[in-house]
Specification:
It contains eleven helices and ten strands. With 275 residues, the chain is an alpha/beta fold. The chain has a six-stranded mixed beta sheet with strand order 6-7-8-3-9-10. A four-stranded antiparallel beta sheet has the order 2-1-4-5.
Length: 275
């Protein structure tokens, strides 16, 4: 369960690591969110990102996708620096990832299909309308929604359906890298479990690398290959859950060995035993 080492992470990059963050500092005015944060994401893994409220999980994701400026440090995505990147370079990298924001972040005045078409129009403006509609319909069904959801507006969807619609939009450009920000938040246990299974199926079928922000212990146990823990303004540990359980850090110990952590572990053990 080693902590991230920035110089070594940089040397290990090129091909195996779609995301490398080194010495990142982010701040809002005088409030520092991250300080000397480093993280390496392996190609093809589902990396869970956890941390206490206000620890900067979503801010880290936003920094990686260029929506939050870095005060210091370096961020490489697919081997290209996105810190102060030229527009053409940034757009070239951006077309290779998809993002599901909290709540779906759908455009309320557009149908589900039209929402999915937004990135297609941005990156492929010359594509024929019929083909764009067909792609949007396919992505909607790939996300687990019925075909008739294409013509529905976000207000007509349940919370779980909105998340799937947001996922369909995130998949519109056939990304290699998928960012999911609290995808199961607000879902009932059955809906959350279904979304977890869908995420794993898509990762395996499409060969995705998934950067998954969550607080859901069941999700971590069910689908994550490794977990990165944010505390004290940096990544304090990265590893498998069995490795993290052995940590002596107070927050990690309380998170994984507290009542909810023990319940999630017992549930996973029962499921594995029944398989």
């Amino acid at each position: 369960m080693p902590e991230q080492n920035a110089p070594d992470a940089h040397k290990r990059f090129r091909g195996e690591h779609p995301i490398v963050v080194e010495g990142l500092k982010t701040a809002f005015g005088e409030h520092v969110v991250h300080d000397n944060l480093s993280l390496t994401v392996n190609r093809g893994e589902i990396l869970g990102v956890v941390g206490g409220s206000g620890s900067g999980k979503s801010v880290l994701m936003r920094a990686i996708i260029g929506l939050q400026a870095a005060a210091e440090g370096e961020i490489e995505v697919f081997g290209r620096s996105i810190v102060n990147a030229e527009p053409d370079t940034y757009l070239g990298v951006r077309s290779r990832w998809g993002v599901l924001f909290q709540g779906g972040a759908l455009f309320s005045t557009l149908t589900v299909g039209e929402n999915v078409e937004v990135p297609l129009k941005q990156f492929y403006p010359d594509i024929e309308d019929e083909l764009r509609h067909d792609i949007a319909r396919y992505k909607v069904m790939l996300s687990g929604l019925p075909e008739d959801a294409v013509s529905k507006f976000p207000a007509e969807l349940s919370g779980g359906m909105k998340k799937r619609a947001g996922l369909a939009r995130a998949l519109a450009l056939d990304p290699e890298l998928l960012f999911l920000d609290e995808p199961t938040a607000g879902l009932d246990p059955i809906g959350a479990a279904k979304f977890d299974r869908l995420t794993k199926e898509l990762q395996e079928t499409l060969g995705l690398t998934v950067f998954l922000i969550t607080h859901d212990l069941d999700t971590l146990y069910e689908i994550c290959d490794r977990v990165a823990v944010i505390a004290d303004k940096r990544i304090i540990a990265v590893g498998t859950i069995p490795e993290l359980i052995e940590s002596k850090h107070p927050w990690i110990d309380e998170y994984f060995n507290g009542p909810r952590g023990r319940a999630a572990r017992a549930s996973k053990q029962r499921a594995d035993g029944a398989a």
